Amino acid sequence: MIAAAPPVPTPRTEEPKIFLVAAEESGDRLGAALMHALRERAAVPPRFFGLGGRDMTAAGLTSLLPIDDFSIIGVASIPRRLPLILHHIYRTVRAIVSMRPQALVLIDSPDFTQWIAKFVRRLDPSIPIVQYVSPSVWAWRPGRARSMRGVVDHVLALLPFEPEVHRKLGGPPCSYVGHPLIEQVDKLRPSATEAQRRRADPPIVLAMPGSRSSEVRLHADVFGEALALLQRRVGPIEVVIPTAPHLLPLVKRVTAGWEIRPRIVADPAEKQAAMRSARVALAKSGTTTLELAVAGIPTVAAYRVSPIEALIAVGMVRVPTFILANLVIGESVVPEVFQWACTGARLAEVLVPLMSDTPERKRQMDAFARLDAIMEVGAQPPASRAANIVLDLMKQHSAAAGGR
To answer: Which residues, in sequence order, are bridge partners of residue 129?
Structure first.
């Protein structure tokens, strides 16, 4: 049983308190955007407490811990990091229950945040809890949706099909607020000059082996082999690897032996410029595939994980495709090459038809053209939608509690 810490002194102002928890960089960006939107829309600007990184701290968060201490990635990593995870859950729950915020917003990282939700709900049921980013209940462990209903008041979904999934699975109320990518459309799609570069030679091929060091190591060699084979079949190509600044030394090291010397870019503006001019992409499966689809770049998706994670996935995954772009479009248009089939020869084989005007390339381009309507591009920004729901939930709970 988690004991409550001594009460945190109540601020002298009437500002509402909102506690946010983000355990990874992507969640930190979502949290910062939500904080800005909440501050703009609230009748009285709230004070923000919780766990977050650089962006949330810059937006005004008083952070309990740095997120670098407890980023939780993959099923296989949980047993090794369990003592640290439990320690952070304990500290976080104590802080929340002592503070009694007007709302608790848990952002992504369900292996961490759902335990926080369970303990907080048990110790203080009066605190409204919002989950920002739905766990992938549509892909595996669907029972999580029903178990969330007892501890989460509302789910803010990034993907348009998720509210219906939660309804069918008996999950909590769920609203589609939009994916952050829909605000990046103008930065991802080419100008007339860049569209000409997409068709020009040598073609630019994006290689995106992952956003985490473990993913880069798993995919680097096979990506290098595939691109070398591709060049032998179609002629000279220009390879560009967009990556994060902290991964730059690793990416340089693991690509040093590639037959084709890639151009590596770590600046976000350079990455977007490369995407606006690229003809095709070879990418690790994940959110990247949706980003490439929004940018209109025909893609081959690859995915390698540890052997134990591969066995778990084969036994538990419930969807016909791993590719996020395919799931959002509702059609398997992006080829996926998974685990044991993920060889340089196979990747090159499926890349070749995408390099020219073929039925395979046209099929992807036609499917990507439907994304604006599916994802509601041009509608209210995702953070604004999310903020409105959080504020409405706070008002409902305040009214039910007599204005707490």
So the answer is: 104
Which CATH code fits 185-375? 3.40.50.2000
**What's domain 17-178+379-400's architecture?**
3-Layer(aba) Sandwich (3.40)
Q: What is the pLDDT of residue 79?
A: 62
Taking the CA of residue 136 as centre, how many other CA atoms within 13 Å lie in the half-sphere pointing to its CB?
17
3-state helix, strand, coil in the chain (%, to 5): 50, 15, 35
Mean pLDDT of 76-93: 75
Answer whether residue 68 shows pLDDT above 90.
no
Task: Let me know the angle formed at the C-alpha of 138 by 136 and 140, rounded to the nearest 5 degrees.
Answer: 70
Neighbours of 357 (CB within 10 A): 9
Do 383 and 36 touch, CB atoms closer than 8 A? yes
Looking at the chain, the domain(s) classified CATH 3.40.50.2000 span: 17-178+379-400, 185-375
> d(Cα 129, Cα 241) in Å, to the nearest integer?
39
Residue 145 in tokens = 């949706």
Report pLDDT for 399.
82
Q: Please, are residues 161 and 131 in contact by the beta-carbon 8 Å criterion?
A: no
DSSP bridge partners of 18: 48, 103
pLDDT tens readout for residues 170-208? 999 999 999 999 999 999 999 999 999 999 999 999 999
Which strand (E) or helix (H) includes residue 50?
A: strand 47-52
Residue 300 Cα to chain centre, angstroms: 19
| Backbone region of residue 324 per phi and psi (left: phi > 0; alpha: psi in -120 to 50; beta: other values) | alpha
How far is residue 289's CA from residue 283's CA, in Å, rounded to a whole number? 7
Tell me: pLDDT of 298 over 90: yes
> Residues 373-387: pLDDT tens digits?
999 998 899 999 999
Strand partners, 283: 208, 301
Task: Give the CB-side neighbour count of residue 165, counting CA atoms within 13 A.
Answer: 25
The type of residue at 172 is P
Residue 328 CA, distance from chain mean position: 14
E strand segments, 279-326: 280-284, 299-303
Q: At what angle do helices 287-295 and 268-277 cross, to 10 degrees?
A: 60
- Cα gap 322→345, rounded to integer Å: 21
Query: What number of helices (H) and strands (E) belong to the chain?
Result: 18, 13
At 334-367, the pLDDT tens digits run: 999 987 889 999 999 999 999 999 999 999 999 9
